[in-house]
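Input/output pair, single chain:
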Amino acid sequence: MSFRFFILVTAMAVSSSLNAQQFLPVKGIVNARELGGYPVQGGTVRSGLLLRTAHLADATDADIRYLSGLPVVKVIDFRMEEEKKGSADRQVPGADHIALPVDASGNAAAQASEKEKKRFTGGRKFDYKKIIMLAAFNNLAKKIARGMYPTLFFDPVCQKQYAEFFRIVLSTENGAVLFHCTQGKDRAGIASALLLAALGASRETIIADFDATNRVYEADVRKYTRRVKFWGGKEEEIGVVKAILGCNTDNFVKVLGRIDAEYGSLESYLEKALGVSAADREVLRGRYLSVSADSSHIDKYAE
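Output:
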């Protein structure tokens, strides 16, 4: 059994026991979770301060009151402009809403023909479910699906945006920070992974948090996988469905291995690629961790 497979299996076991407490009590916001409660080396992440979600366009009045009551003071939106079409965030009173677009395609989407752009983004409202069948059999979409995680971690423009994300979080001394993309899975998931790494979480905890998205979208993945198979789709086409609707945890683990090979660790990646220094990480740990003398609160998987 490979080490990567061992890490993945262990993380899945951790996921089943950790993630229930991370889900937020909201009705209209999908994949809404917090990092609070996760065990890290030396303590736990404080609750109600670091939130990861899908977009806020369908948030209910009660959801907005809940977020305002925490209080959420920063809302960071990783979506590209075309993704906001018909799905503008509802405003959280008292919060700064910050557009910080991250292009998961690494600008590959810009290579699409005008006909493709019209088919994928030409409607009044951007609806990722409506484009799944088109995307599954589209060569450019397949290319983007294969390269999404390496792009998000290694593309210089994406790195610049994630560095700015950390700058915003570091500058927020009081209140909660909510960050999201369209579905709260890939771009928000990687932001969450980087934050957890900065806070001292183990590799297994980081992967478990990333993989929890697949439980949220499991039914949709099964539904559209069946449809793609019916129309003759094979492994590559099904991979596009999974990339759009879920997250590919195995590919995520592979990219973490590449980071280890090129940078030595996620912490080193934070410093060298994003400019998040050891001093910055200490600031984050001081602000977002509850340090406990009780060893049962320490991440038993942390190195």
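The beta strands are 33-34, 39-40, 43-45, 50-53, 72-77, 96-99, 176-180, 289-291. Residues 5-15, 108-114, 295-303 have pLDDT under 50 and may be disordered.
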